[in-house]
Each structure stands twice: as C-alpha cells, then as structure tokens.
Amino acid sequence: xxxxxxxxxxxxxxxxxxxxxxxxxxxxxxxxxRLLIEGVAPxxxxxxAALSSVLSSxxxxxxxxxxxxxxxxxxxxxxxxxxxxALLVSLTxxxxxxxxxxxxxxxxxLAPQVVALAWLQLLGPSSTLLKMIGLAPPLGTRNPLYSxxxxxxxLGIQYAPLVFLTLRAGLRTLPQELIEAGLAGGAKPLRxxxxxxxxxxxxxxxxxxxxxFVSCLGNFGIPAFLGIPGNYLVLPTLIYQRxxxxxxxxxxxxxxxxxxxxxxxxxxxxxxxxxxxxxxxRITTTSNAARPFELQRWRFGVEAVLWILxxxxxxxxxxxxxxxxxxxxxxxxxxxxxxxLENYAFVLFEHDAARRAFRNSFGLATTAAVVIVLIAVPLAxxxxxxxxxxxxxxxxxxxxxxxxxxxxxxxxxxxxxxKPLPLVRMSLYNTVWIILFCYLARFxxxxxxxxxxxxxxxxxxxxxxxxxxxxxxxxxxxTIILPLVAPAAAAGALLIFLTAFNELTVSALxxxxxxxxxxxxxxxxxxxxxxxxxxALATLTVVVSIALMLSTLLVRGLPRGVLPWRD
Amino acid sequence: MKVxxxxxxxxxxxxxxxxxxxxxxxxxxGGKLVLYTxxxxxxxxxxVAAFKRVxxxxxVEVFRSGTSEVMAKLAAEFSGGAxxxxxLLLADAxxxxxxxxxxxxxxxxxxxxxxxxxxxxxxxxxxxxxKLITTGIAVNTSAKSRxxxxxxxxxxxxxGQIAMPSPLYSGAAAxxxxxxxxxxxxxxxxxxxxxxxxxxxxxGNGAVLTAVANGEKAYGVLVDFMAFNAKAKGSPxxxxxxxxxxxxxxxxxxxxxxxxxxxxxxxxxxxILSDEGQxxxxxxxxxxxxxxxxxxxxxxxxxxxxxxNTDIAKVVQSNSANLKRFADxxxx
Lengths: 567, 332
Prior knowledge:
heterodimer, A: mainly alpha, MetI-like fold, B: alpha/beta, 2 domains, 6-stranded mixed β-sheet, 12 helices, 13 strands
C-alpha cells in the first residue's frame, strides 16, 4: 500500500528545500556571479587583463595583508570585549544588567564614520576632554588613531555587540543542572565557566567570531577615516581608489579585488566549519535558567569596570555627537551663546528627505529583519539537522554579499537589475525594492549565523516526538522549532535591524528620489561639510532606536529570553 | 510721418516677440529629465528648483552622491546596458574628459557660450564649466602663523598640522595634483616636502573642512566655497589664496549620448549657463563661470584671483602615473 502520508511529508520537504535553494541562489549567488563575469569577461569579451593587472600589483597584496591583519585583530578584540561582557552579564549577579545590555548593543547603531570622527576628536589636539584634564597633545601631533592599531581598536569596539548578542542568546539556553553539577563536584565558578560553559557555547561564540571577521573585512567607514590619513591601505579602501581613478576597466578591476575579499571571507567560514565539525553541543533546554554566580566582594569592582567600558564605547562618542549637534557651526565650543536647536529643527522640519529617510530606513530595516528570519529558520533546519549537501554548499556563499564592501554589492545589483526583469517586464531599478533586495542579500548572514548556532545547541527529541505524532515539517517548524530558536532568531533580527537602519554604502549608489535612506542623507550632510546637521540626524537616529528598543519592553507574551535586555 | 511710424514699429516688434514666444512655447521642452550630480545636496535641490521655475513642463529626477559613487553607478550602467541619466553635473573636467574619450557625451554645438572664457568649456562643446571652484589654504583662526603661499606650507613650523584631500579618492584633488606637479615652482618636490612635513591626505574636502574647523589640524588644502560658507555660519576658519595662484575645477555640465530627452537636456545646459543659472551659483557662494553674473559675497568685487592653468587633456593622460607616484610618496 502506498504510504500517502509519508509521500506528502516528503513532497513538502522537497519543495521547501528547493525553494530555499532558489532563494539563497538568487540572493547570494546571482549578484556575485554577475560581478564575476564582469571581472573575467567585461562587455562579453573574455579577458584576463584585469585579473593579471590586479593580481600582479604589489599594492593588491599589501592591501590584502593589511585587510587580514586588521580583520583578525578587530575580531580578537571584539571577541574579548563582547565575550567577557556577555559572560558577566548573563552568568553573574551584577546589578543593572539590562542597562548594561542596552549600552553594549547601541554602538552597533552608530555609523562607523560617526564613531571614527568622535574618537578622532576625542584623542586629537582639539579634544575638549583632554584639554580639561590638561593632557591634550600639542597642535601638530599626529593622532594615534591614524594607525593599524587605531583601526583595530575601532573595529573591535564597533563589532563587539555581534559577539555579545550571539553569545548572550546562546547563554539563555544554558541549563541550571549542568552548572550545579559542576559546582556540586567541587569546581570553582571560573573552572565551571572554562570547562562546562565555554565548550557548550562554542557554536554561538564561533558564529559571533565569524560574523565579526566578515564584518571587519568588509568595513569601509573606519579604514576610510583612519587608514587613508595613516597611509594604511586595506582592500575596501583600495576598491574605492580604483573607483575614483579615471579610465576604462575600472569595474573589472573592482570585480577582481572583490573576489579576493570573497576568497578571504570563505577561508574564514571554512575554518569555522572545521571548528564545529564532529562535536556535539546539544543541550536539553526548557529547564530553569542557571542561578547567577555570586561575585561577592568582586561585584562592585566588576560593575565599575563594566560601567567604565560602557562610558568609553558608548557615552563618549554619543556625547561628542550631541555636542556637535547643538552648536551653530562646526568647530565652535558649546556654550550658552553657541547652543542652538536649529540643527534639529532643520533636520526634522525643513529637510523633507530626512523625514522620508526615517520612514524608508525603518521600513527597509524591519522588512529585512523579518523576511531574513523567516528564511533563516527553515534554512538552518536543513543545514544543521538534515545536513543537506546542496544547501551546505550554497550556504557558503551567503556570507559573501556581507563580506564585500557595500559599493560592490550595489554595482552587482545595478548590473543585474538595470534592464527590466525577464518574463514579468517589471523593473526594480530606481525603486526602493532594489535596495530591499540588496539588504536581504547582504544581511542574510547576520540572521542566519545566530539561528544556525541556536540549532546546534538544540536537542532534536522534541521535534522527532512531534514528527512521530504526525505533524508535518512546516507545522513542526511553526509550533516546536520556532519557539525553541526564538532567542537566537531575535538576536539575528536585532543585528539586522540595527545594522540596516544606518546602512550607507549600498544605498549610496542605489537610492532614487523618494527612496532615500538615513545613511544617504547623513552622507550628503557630511560630504557637504555640514557636520552639525549630520550630528543632529545621527543623534535622532540613536534616540529613535533606543525608544524602539524600550518599547519592546511593553510587548507581552514573548517567549522567555527572546529580548536580550529582558530577563 | 516719421512720428507715426514709431508706434507701428513697436507694434511689429511686439508681434515678433509674441511669435518668438509662441514658437518657443511650441518647442518648450517637457517630459522627464534625469540628472546625476555630485553637487552638495542643498545646491542640487536649489538648482533643480530654479530650473523648474524656468521650464515648468520638465519633470526632473535627481541622483546625488559622491563623485566616486556617481562614477561607479555610471560605470555599472554603461556595462549593464545604458545609463538612465540624461545630464551630468560633476565636479571636474578631467572626469568629463574621460567620459568624452569613451564616446559617452553628446556635443551641443549651439550652447550659448558667448561671454564665457573659452578655458571653461570643451572646444568640442561636449561639456561646459558651470563655475570656478578654487583650491586654497584654509586656516583655523586659532593658528599662530599664516602661510601666504603654497611654498610656505612646506616650512618646518607647519609640520604635522596640514590636512589635504587625497587625489587617490577625489577627482578634483587629482586635478590639483596634475596641475601643481607640472609647475616649475612646485613640482613633485613640493609634494615630497609636504610628506616630509607630515601632511595627511584624507578622503575628501568635507573631511578637510571638519578637521580644520575642529582644530584637529590647523591648516587644510580646501575648496573656497566650503571654507567661506562655514565661516559665514560662524566656524573659526579663514581662507587664503596662495601667492603662486590657485588650481581650480569648473563643475561642468554635460549631456549623455544616450539621453532620452535631448531637448530638456539642452534646456538644462542652457539654464546652467544662463544669467539666471549663473546668478544662482553666485547666491550659493560660488564664483560663476560667466564673470558678468557677479561675485559671491565673500569675494570683494574686483578681486583678481590668480588661477593656475590646467591642461585637462594632459592631466587625464598622466593621471594614473600621477596617482601611482603620489601613492609611492605618501606610502599608499
């Protein structure tokens, strides 16, 4: 007798699997393939000219070396900061933990160029702070941030929230029993962390590290501000150099350089796969959360260190930003005669595009976050639990659109969508939809990595039980799996929202009248030298996002541990 | 009799004017016009608004971004088929010259160039300078001493205090490099001296302005209007025209060969070069291409600015070699 139920089950699985293959293929593979063609066959003529000229240039290899060095350095720093903060916030009895969580998530909101500028002023000869304590370097001193160390420092600070958020989501699933067993066995808390917690947390830690590495590799804002004056070239800045140079063949050279970035990123991802292979990180969840370690006499000291850290990485740049936004012209000291709200009035009431940009960026960031999570949850199911070969292969490329500098992804999207789409005869070009496409492609990795690590930590028994009970795949995903991976998925969605809300490099090429994004407007102000307007807009962005994050506290009925800032 | 003929003459002239207006009306450009520009955002929107007052039937769409971004978009569009743009308004003539060399620009032989200095537009009439943007020395008002020439900047007392836009990332700065290195009084030796004086090359003019206004650097190589507009708003900044002269870019306007709306595109060029368009540039703080349009508030009338001559064709030709040499001198 034919097994009809089994057949329908398999039919559903297959259609879901191939739908996912198609989605990932279109989002991640298609733009890159189009770019690759540009690299090896510009205008349809096969040519190795760009390939050989780029690969034989010593500049390319210097930039590649620098890229690797700053990406590794930034990743290590982000891991140390983000990892230890996540452990302290999640495992110990420090007070005000939700406030700390807020402080360590917000920096992701600040556009890299804004952070870089704030830090330059902070440590430079014009620093108000250093002047106050009499330590301001004399005029003409070279700013110490114009160096590889400066780039690594700011990359580490910028991306520490990636490690922090993924690890925090993982720690939410840590069961009480394991820690208590360790403690009962006579182990000291530090030993428990080292031998029980950290090994179990390998998947989220590795996911966070991988995301950091790829983020550092593709970051343009920080090396542009610190590396160009410091004569320290990385691949993304080299790509911009090529774009600014005149002459034909620019696109092919950019395509070849992008392949190099992609190659380094894939190496990093493969390394991550090796680290996770053949080990088991599953935890029986749904037990009570672990009781926090009591820090006792160390508590005050640890809290003080955490507060100092949040002042350094959040408060200082924001104070610099707010000060700039309150003066009538750049370079004026803030006092009772120079203070004004005009910049805010201009941005809010006189500048139409700024208001539209808030709406557009909010819509784009929210849509991207929701859609990507909806893709990532079933995708990770096939990747982790079903070990689907075809998906594993294709998911290697999901990280590439994120690793490439945004301008490169935008160029690929233009090449892809300039002509109306075949069959439907519609054109995405010069609409907000082309930006959404790029956001989905670019930020898929940000959503997928945390969810994949969530699956690594889940025990499959519940899902198998419901399968035996006759629930088909989509239903199992909806009712069993989704609640279990919700913390990881929410962390991913949050990463996407915060990053996309301020995104610049993609939309700088793709926006059109009416489809401005916040990043584009900010960039316009900065470029025109209107740094006071730019500061006002950036401050508003931060205020709006903090308000949005606070408003989530009012939502009832979310599963436990979904919001990183709510116990 | 003679007295009687006068009203008739006026009547005839009036009729002729009506006929001219009517034919102009029949040919009045309309439809959609797509402009790609690297102008600062406020200037771009003011330019479009003023254009639309003269040609209300034309609907203008604008893409505004940095010069590199506009060029990247154009390159991708050329490669993917055809550009959506009809007209370009970009920072420098070298960029236009390279587009012209690739056969991307449409000549406009009837452009109204009377009254314009022939240096400001292309001899083949494919692109037309809309203004003069000079580059000089910006000084933070708290700086102790004031340079009066480019040569001064390389002196030891200014060591470590100079910011300049990097020609590797900015087309306008590349023209400056191409201009200054061919001069016997400056040449490559000058840039070697600047490097020895620890001058830093930042990504663009906006970054130079921010560095000098905030006192991060005391001196900056900067375009005139940015310094003067910031000064007018109260920033602690001054601007010096160096004794040797100043390199300048012309922010040219050009029509793409693939334009879908040539009449409107020509109307846009006409508008930019017209007295009204030129006066608009003056009101935005620029030196106009057409001297008769006046001069910006910061420039005392009658001031003669000493311009450095730029051989655009030569700059384009030597550009990649120049950039390589600059990268060698400045590390990368």
